[in-house]
Sequence to fold (804 residues):
Amino acid sequence: MQFNSLIFLVAFSIFIFLYYILKNNNRKTLLLICSLLFYSSFGLTGLVIMVSVLTVVYISGIAVERSEERKGIFWISIVIVLSFLFVFKYYNFFTDALPGALNLPLLKTASPVGLSFYTFAGLSYVIEVYRKRIKAEKNIFYLAQFITFFPLVVSGPIERPYNILPQLREEKNFDYDSVKKGLILVTLGFFKKIVIADRIADLSEKVFSNPQEYKGIALIAGAVLFSIQIYCDFSGYTDIAIGIASIMGFKVMENFNLPYYAKSIQDFWARWHISLSTWLRDYLFLPIAYLITRKLNNKPFLGMKSENWSYLAGISFTMLVCGLWHGANWTFIVWGLLHALYLVIGFLTKKIRKRILRKSGLEKSIISSIFKTSFTFSLVTLAWVFFKSESISAGYYFVSNIFSGFSLLTVMKIFSSRYELIVVLSLLILLELIHFVQKKYGILNFINSRPVWQRWGFYYFFIFIILIFGRFDSATFIYANF
Amino acid sequence: MQGQIKLYKKLLIIIIPVIVLILFFEVRARGLENGFTLKKKVIENKISDINILILGSSHGYFSINPDILNHNSVNLAYYSQDLYYDNLLFEKYKNNLKNLKCIIVSVSYFSLWYDLNEAHEKWRKYFYKEYFNLPARSSYSLSDYTDIKTYSFAFLYRIENTLLGMINPKMFSFGTKMNSLGWNTDTTGNVLDSTEATILRGKERVEFTNTLVIRKNFESNISILGNFAKYLKENNIKLVFVTTPVSFAYAKYIDKNIYIEFTEKAGSFADGKDVFYLNYFYDKRFCMTDYYDYDHLKGSGANLFSRILKDTLENLKITDKQ
Fold:
């Protein structure tokens, strides 16, 4: 059951009506039951795996808190939780890909929907208990609500236990503003997902499924279209998820902050899939960086400062894991390593670049700002090519043919008609207007500051745009596969 | 509670115009010409003159041009049409097909195991009900009731397309690219080449068609064919099963066991007198550019195939030379 399905909309309307009618405890029970029902709609095997992860996480939390051997138990817990991820997501890949594999039989169970998201949420809980930032949850009922929380279980954001668990214990009363905010976010999310992402998906798919038919600028257009598609798909999903949570009275962390306006790759990662990038930063990058600095005793190694070593090693490993997190495929590994390379080069050239900009007097100029944003977008788009391609060789073919022709007419091959081109361009201009408002005023502040007739004008405008240009028969969200 | 009432009131103010707009588009969508309305016109306008009726799935719809076959032929094959609907369509019109001499049924690699009701395009059954009053093969499932296409043509076409169709019917195409005898005239499919990547994607297409092979449907499909053949024989109408050509990128990846089982069974109906089976699956006279996609002929390729079929029918004396 996807958020963009009719059955979800009907079921959610009934759910939310009951949710606010019921008393507090019954409401929580309803939430848990509905979360389990929602997840079971993707298959019962997945539900069994999720309940198993929940059980392990619950026992681990209490054991880590109470035991005197907390470090040992902590690591055992981490290994057990990760083993779910390994077995159901990576086992087939490694069995198949590693040379001299042991001829082990392949697993026939498909990777459960959202496995990477809820295992990372579970890991976050165990780590925070170990770090004593939160207390272990004694009542499995609350922990179950956190792990199975239906707005987030399929594609995140990957929430932190210290943000959600206290909210689950609070008594939720109907809050008009929170519901209104949620509805606006859901509308915005649907606009991004079913109006833009699903429409552009047809176009980018045309190019990526048959790159031999396209050359030069048409390939570039295909790659740019995919960049827009994946952003609208995932941030649209996130808006819907956060909106649904807000309708239920929950405050969920932001996951996107205009990522394609980033001025560097580092900046990009502070804006793209924030819940994952901060997860990786807090639980992987920083521990590795500290460990290396400690091992080197803060002394230079091979002529380079220890903090440089810790950054380079930490970021390379973190981005490799980030790539693998997205899926068991070499293309994701290449994508992660490309980002690692960008970040390493960015780190090593930071001072030189600053010096050049200062001397040229362009440091704060609009030209430099536009150049940085465009260059960052180009690098991100280049990496998306591998992310999207079926294989590394397909990605390489795509990239190596980007400079093979510059006839604008070839771009028209992507669009089925001039009408399609005009509609896509118009919708992208509308998206940019939304981004402009988001950046300058914040969407909600902007809407709330308008007179009634304008506010209602916006509501009707976007609902009709979704109704008329939306693809209601479209596929799943891209990130639901991760 | 006051907050909730305020919200519900506002939601009503939003939802009512939306419902009105959807209803408006729904009414207009139902008035638009689609592939099924055209097929209905094709057969009903010529019913008493028809000598050859072509039934079957999209393979027959794409590959057999009635203009080339002559003999007052009409093509009633269509996208995803299974043997069950082939039979029902014939049952519906058989009493009015006064001059019918031959029926050509295109049977595909998967046909003997295929049931539209279990395929991803099962929404097509609503059109058979709406326009031909033909019942679905089995009762509706929960997924039928939760599928918006069950209720709405506007959402099936997409409201945008409905709007375009209202503004200019030429801009709306929902399976309507066919000539006056029901043959597909859409030639916009992907140009196939012989590169490794193109050939590899043939595998994906075969994998998709393999999902249409559902073993439990075999007996009922065979039974449909048996009854069909018997009725036609009793009424002195020739029956020709035709398997249309596929590209080598498709043929390369098919499941050989399914293919052998299929051809043996389809062939077993043939008696060389009243029932014939013509298999062009591996026909090498067609090149990649003759195909709309991996397993459908288009334009000149379909015309070439229709000429070949015409000659064969004449040689077998199924039809007279014209």
